[in-house]
Write a structure and sequence with these properties.
- With 225 residues, the chain is an alpha/beta fold.
- Helix 4 links the parallel strand 4 and strand 5.
- The N and C termini lie far apart (40 Å).
- Helix 1 crosses helix 6 and helix 3 packs parallel to helix 4.
- It has two domains: 85 residues, Rossmann fold; 91 residues, Rossmann fold (3-Layer(aba) Sandwich).
- It has a seven-stranded parallel beta sheet with strand order 3-2-1-4-5-6-7, sandwiched between helices.
- The radius of gyration is 16 Å and the shape is globular.
- Bound molecules: NADP nicotinamide-adenine-dinucleotide phosphate.
Length: 225
Amino acid sequence: MNTAVITGGGSGLGKELAVLLSKKGYHVHLLGRTEQNLKNTALEIKSNGGEATFHSLDLLSYETIQKVAKEVSDRFKIELLVNNAGVGYFGSFTESTDQEMEEMFSTNVFGPIRLTKELLPSLRKHKKSAVLNIISTAGLRGKKHESLYVASKFAFRGWGESLQKEFEGTPPRFINAFMGGMNTPFWDKSDHVGNPEKLRSPSEIAEIIINQYETENEIVIESKK
Ligand SMILES: NC(=O)c1ccc[n+]([C@@H]2O[C@H](COP(=O)([O-])OP(=O)(O)OC[C@H]3O[C@@H](n4cnc5c(N)ncnc54)[C@H](OP(=O)(O)O)[C@@H]3O)[C@@H](O)[C@H]2O)c1
């Protein structure tokens, strides 16, 4: 059975990707901080006949990243890593805080880069391995009142695009996915988006990604007009 590792697999897009990947026959390893959410996703997958394991991981802690990466790669040959977890703080640049900037860059950029580096030796053993980076259309263009989030997503995109070139022809393959707004818990503590219910569902976005990631290196899913 092939193995997939998914950060932020307990909610939103990560959860939907995990469910679909398990249906494709992957044993999915769900990573995140809120154990109850990970557990619920794992239970859902298992009740559908799939295989799932969860691990507590805080992307802000390099030590935890190393520990979880070792735990998974010692026992499994990883075919797919989905760098999905992310946080966003929105509002005017003048009112933004240094702590928000630190947290966004640590979670959206440094965390996934560190995790990928730790899992690379395992990923490189599999001829068809891939790293799927969940970015955002915020990684394609600047947006008002999103400057620091956009900056983190541009950085993540730049890293992914560079590795697409550096690993061309050798595993893993790097895929960058850019999507518009989704109705997920991402907006629970923010009023940046007026009515999140108008946004696309994470299951719709997950389905598009799963249909494309095996053949495309770049997936762009714009918001509905
Ligand atoms: N929703 C949108 O409109 C939208 C649009 C484009 C792109 N995106 C991107 O899509 C990705 C998924 O977001 P979502 O919309 O599905 O929102 P979400 O449900 O809030 O998912 C974010 C996930 O990241 C995890 N996470 C956050 N901080 C973490 C940390 N320090 N360590 C480990 N895991 C952490 C969260 O789990 P815990 O809190 O339990 O750790 C959560 O499961 C993010 O990268 C986001 O930037 C979202």
